Amino acid sequence: MTDTFRDDASRLDVRYVAHLARLHLSDEEAAVFQPQLEQVLGYVRELGALDVEGVEPTAHAFPVQNVFRDDEVRPGLDHEAAMKNAPQERQGQFIVPKIIE
Amino acid sequence: MKYLPTIGLEIHVQLKTRSKIFCGCPNEPGGEPNTHVCPVCLGYPGTLPNVNGEAIRLTVLTGLMIGCRINPYSKFDRKNYFYPDMPKNYQISQYDKPLCLGGSVEIEVEGRKKAVGITRIHLEEDVGKSMHFGSSSGVDFNRAGAPLMEIVTEPDIETPEEAQAFLLALRQILLYGGVSDCNLEQGNLRCDVNCSVRPEGQSELGTKIEIKNMNTFKGVFHALKHELPRQEEVLRSGGAIRQETRRWDDEKGVTEAMRSKEYAHDYRYFPEPDLMPVVLPPETVEQWRATLPELPAKRRDRLVTEYGLPDYDAGVLVADKAVADFFEETARASGNPKAASNWVMTDVLRCLGEKQTELKDAKLTSVSLAGLIRLVDQKVINVPTARELFSELFEKGGDPTELVKTKGLAQVSDTGALEAYADEAIAENPGPVADYRAGKKPALQFLVGQIMKKSRGKANPRMVQELLQRKLGGA
Ligand SMILES: [Zn+2]
């Protein structure tokens, strides 16, 4: 679908994938995971041998559609409860490391 | 060498629903930070989104208004990226099966009409708002999960003027359909601008620059006015444009490159497993279509044919749906469309502008304005008196007929009373009387003025004039 899953994904760099997931890999870990990643992708690629001409991509296995909610306001969390999980709070906001654009 | 610009827009529109798109929190801008939140829009593990059907309806309605095809099968996808204003670390959006496809919006620039193509409209959730403190940033999630519709245009726009005309036309349609408040100050409408330039004769488009997060139409216009010549200049001097994201600095009046995030565009979309696909039956879509309002371009034509208004006047009136509705109500109730259009275009719009208010908040009703018009038509009051009454009706409301009665404003058309005023005026102003008799016609207006003063504005000026002419001889 996107670059990550391209046909030539056997050459996918495990460090690139790790970076996208914000995972830090040591050199040793990268050396172990790179061939493992290629193996997994190779296994999935066996599906490529199937003739799926005319078969609609399946996003969901259940024959269920149009699950909608009425447009009604429901009570949520009150402010104090919402902020309980904030490691730091200032002026009612969740404090995070400085965001740089 | 001439350079041709190519411009495409991505417009994010906050939909007018009561609750957010995937949870029951109120969809209200502002408020104290983190007071319209719940475990779903705060992205707590183990929570599940639940689609607000109204957000689907409003998006489809928009598609129908601008001639889109409604996708028979539509689904939601996850767009994966990390940013502190998005608590789940993915945004629920639509990737390859958006709700609406195709369509166009007609614009007019300097008398030239043109259709700007629409590529698609998809639905997604808005993110939170961040605020910057010295060494840290704060996040407010009240806006997170607000229903956001993204409208993507084809690269059909060729000038900053066209971009602005497109945004105005689109905003007008969205307001007519009641799908969004389109309040720019509150960020209901935000726009990303894609633009490039290419030498005339070259068919292949130039390298694209994205200007992110514009929230005023003037901003879009000025950013393009600056950015297109900048790109042209780079090419003219033999340089190359590098694909990048820029930001418009309104104060400095320049666009600046943003620090581009590494791999920022590998979003690894995949189908959202927590949400079922949307498969709208054609009957449902047709039911919704039947509720569509008359769109501005059509209404303008109708006002011209139905009420005999000049095209320009009709254009002014339809610019705002509430104003056009008010005009039509007034025209019907008064039976005088020409007067209704004059009052609405001048006095009503002026007062709304001066008071910085909207019709829905004004005390003036179409019934009272129509009453005022009828009082003038029946010669119960004259136009200056009507103007005075109008200010009062605009500010305090009320029934014009009652006001005329209680204030004793009814025009004096009683010949006896007018004659007494006229005789006084003639006696007190021998100079102007002599002037008029000597052929100086403007002197008559002075005498009319004197009589109007004596009657405290209530005399019927046409009758006064006739009376004076009769008394002084000669016409
Ligand atoms: Zn919520």
Number of strands of chain B: 16
Count the helices of chain B. How many? 15
Query: Ligands bound here?
Result: zinc ion
The number of helical runs of chain A is 3
What's the number of domains of chain B? 3
Ends distance of chain B: 69 Å
Estimated helix fraction of chain A: 25-40%
* Biggest interface, residues from each chain: A-B, 42 and 61 residues
Mean pLDDT of chain A: 87
**Which strand order spans the largest sheet of chain A, edge to edge or round the barrel?**
2-3
- Average pLDDT score of chain B: 91
Describe the secondary structure blueprint for this structure.
The complex is a heterodimer of chains A (about 100) and B (about 475).
Chain A: H1 14-20, H2 27-45, E1 68-69, H3 79-83, E2 89-90, E3 93-97
Antiparallel strand pairs in A: 2-3
Chain B: E1 3-14, E2 51-52, H1 53-65, E3 69-70, E4 77-80, E5 90-93, E6 100-101, E7 104-109, E8 112-125, E9 129-132, E10 136-140, E11 147-153, H2 160-177, E12 189-199, E13 209-214, H3 217-236, E14 244-249, E15 254-257, E16 270-271, H4 282-290, H5 296-307, H6 311-318, H7 321-334, H8 337-355, H9 366-377, H10 383-396, H11 400-407, H12 415-428, H13 430-437, H14 442-454, H15 461-472
Parallel strand pairs in B: 13-14
Antiparallel strand pairs in B: 1-11, 1-12, 3-6, 4-5, 4-16, 6-8, 7-8, 8-11, 9-10, 12-13, 14-15
Helix pairs in contact in B: 2-3, 5-6, 7-8, 7-9, 9-10, 12-14, 12-15, 13-14, 14-15
Bound molecules: zinc ion (ZN).
